[in-house]
Amino acid sequence: MSSFHLQKAETRPSSYQRKEKSLGILCSNFLKLYGEEGVGTIELDDAASKLGVERRRMYDVVNILESIGIIERKGKNTYSWKGFGEIPRALEELKVSNDNDNGASSSLQTNGKNYPLESLRTDNRRDKSLSILTRSFIKLFLCSDVDMILLDDAAKALPGDNQDTTALRTKVRRLYDIANVFSSMRLIEKTYCPESRKPAFRWLGWKAETENGSDTAMDLNPSRKRLFGTDITNHSSKSNKVDSSTNRKSNQKVIEPIHKRDGGSEVVHDGIKVDQHSRYSSKPRGIVFGPFAPVNMSSLKAQEAERKRVTEVQETLGSGSPPHYHDSQRR
DNA sequence: TACTCCCGCCAGAGG
DNA sequence: CCTCTGGCGGGAGTA
Asked: Which UniProt keywords are present, listed alphabetically (predicted)?
């Protein structure tokens, strides 16, 4: 690993708040930062420092965003900005892509090494599971008529060994990561399953935003569920994958647009308010930086200072050789 | 308690 | 060997 890690529990500012460091916020900041301005090239290390996060996190965001077509990997450490306009295209492709069948099917686990749908030719034979999982997750919505999905169900439905509970747990963690960034983009939204009361996610789709605010619903009619992947030729098997100890019944048709979305101006996703409108409008303003990020991204000074500070801290506790991080940071 | 999901270790790929 | 990637899951933060 290259960059400095640190920010161990004991060094975190007492004001530390986990939520401020969520992938969703990082994603929002990232999009605002590169969103407009003809910034064509994105350097990961540069982005990491500008956004005040460790490099590792950039890989998460970048891999998810690439699945949506917003950016494209150019090479080591560099990505190019494609734009939000690519989203509809990317989604359409996912919708139609005829992989080893999208998620939802039970048949595709090649024993031994569970193998996720890989086609998605996008680019080289890169098996980034997060990318694959992201695509599969999206396809779950686009190629079926479900209105909302429980991540646990999604994990079971998506490619992989759904027998291995540990693997499932890990997959669910990843889905949370993905859901976070998509929620921040308002591509999906969190809700609760009417009957089970359990947390679930609903697909909102991407709506092109026209200058004057009028949006052009792209693949979703406000509060009109059905219509989702309904006519996609190849969605064939979408249901199945049911059962599950606790709540069998799994996804499929949970319908009932409880929280009729749209209308509202801001939605709360995990307590974080997302401004529906001014999203990525223009000018990288309103960026929400993490706890130790610079206050104003244009001032590299602040960043440098921060970095220096961080380095110091690192040195300070250098000799210690912390076998295990996650110490405490009790309450 | 149940749900979230950040954090960073570390293996593997690339150069 | 070094740097870049990113799988992975422990366990802390939240609701």
From this structure: Cell cycle, DNA-binding, Nucleus, Repressor, Transcription, Transcription regulation
Q: Is the CB of A5 under 7 A from strand C?
A: no
DSSP notation for A212-223? TS-EEE-S-BTT
Separation between the CA of A45 and the C1’ of C4 (whole angstroms): 11
Q: How many CB atoms lie within 10 A of CB A300?
A: 12
- C-alpha triplet A314, A316, A319: angle, nearest 5°: 90
Residue A159 confidence class, pLDDT cut points 50, 70, 90: confident
DSSP A224: B
Highest mean pLDDT among A111-125, A131-145, A281-295: A131-145
Q: Residue A199, CA: closest nucleotide via C1'? A: B3
Distance CA A304, CA A120 (A): 40
Statement: the CB of A161 is under 7 Å from strand C: no
Dihedral angle, C-alpha A129, A134, A137, A139, nearest 10 °: -110
Å: A212 CA to C2 C1': 51
Taking only the tens place, the pLDDT of each residue in A276-322 is 334 454 334 445 444 443 333 333 334 433 443 333 333 333 333 33
More confident residue, A256 or A29: A29
